[in-house]
Amino acid sequence: MVHLVTRLLGLISDTHGLLRPGVHDALSGVTLILHAGDVGGSGILDELRLIAPVRAVFGNTDPAGDPDLAPEIMMNVEGMSVHVSHGHEVGSPTPARLADRYDADVVVYGHTHRPLVTKLGGRLFVNPGAAGPKRFNLVPSVARLTISGGKAEVEIVEIA
Known about the structure:
The chain has about 160 residues and is mainly β.
């Protein structure tokens, strides 16, 4: 009998200093939160840590030198490689541009504020959307990434 381990990760980006109360429900039950940048202060990460442990990357609006923010995250989750960056480092981020730069099974990014889940070359690209201040007539959102048995699935969750 094979025992498959399932990991549920919360994906969030572009909070810009605002963590909506609905994020707590949307990310309930995740084992780790990955923040794809434009955090807007350590208070956001502190509040997210009430839900689960957090790893976060710099966005183009985050101050340089913040010890809580990495330039990028590369990690292995149940045999799948996961890369997280803000996306601005490739200009206007698209799955194709990110695929050219990063070699991971799952690539998570932010910056555009637009939620997107797409596959390219068998790899999964996820932008959870923006969870902070409402902009561009877009509904704030986060994502839930499930990794199990060498497969990854994503659900975008709108925040009221």
